[in-house]
Amino acid sequence: MPWKQDSPDSIFMVEHWESLRNLEQHQQTDHMERHRTAIKHDVVDVKIFVLEPAF
């Protein structure tokens, strides 16, 4: 498959959020800040892709 990518050192997560605002607010919570601090030496990069339904 030409579109398939091999990313053995990656984690892919799919989440459904009621709104972009809710996601942005979640990113600012205390537990997310603690999480980012806890993983900062183990994670090289974080990319968030916001997807929309095709229908």
UniProtKB/TrEMBL annotation:
Keyword Protein biosynthesis: no
Highest taxon in the source lineage: Bacteria
Keyword Glycoprotein assigned: no
Keyword annotations: Monooxygenase, Oxidoreductase
GO MF: monooxygenase activity
Domain ABM: 5-36
Designated name of the protein: Quinol monooxygenase YgiN
Organism annotation: Candidatus Erwinia dacicola
